[in-house]
Design goal:
By secondary structure, the chain is mainly α. Helix content is about 35%, strand content about 0%.
């Protein structure tokens, strides 16, 4: 390979390595491997009574699910809430 190609490949490797080591942009401590996300959407017009089925046992059910995943597997879960 010619020298310009070697130099280009070297620069590409250095830049990609440096960008991969940056911290997350949100400043969130990502100590976990798994994050549970509940996505809410409106499947019918008019909503519902007091938030409908989405608020049945929120956030207790989400926290209980994450405790179970953490206890029954070797997966580290994120315990920070993003509500």
């Amino acid at each position: 390979m010619p020298k310009p190609v070697h130099l280009s490949l070297l620069m590409l490797m250095v830049i990609s390595t440096a960008s991969a080591q940056q911290t997350p942009a949100l400043g969130i401590d990502v100590a976990g491997e798994f994050a549970f996300v509940r996505i809410q959407y409106d499947s019918y017009y008019g909503g519902g009574f007091y938030g409908g089925p989405w608020l049945t046992d929120f956030p207790a059910s989400d926290q209980n699910f994450l405790r179970g995943v953490s206890r029954l597997t070797n997966v580290r879960v994120m315990d920070e809430d993003f509500c």
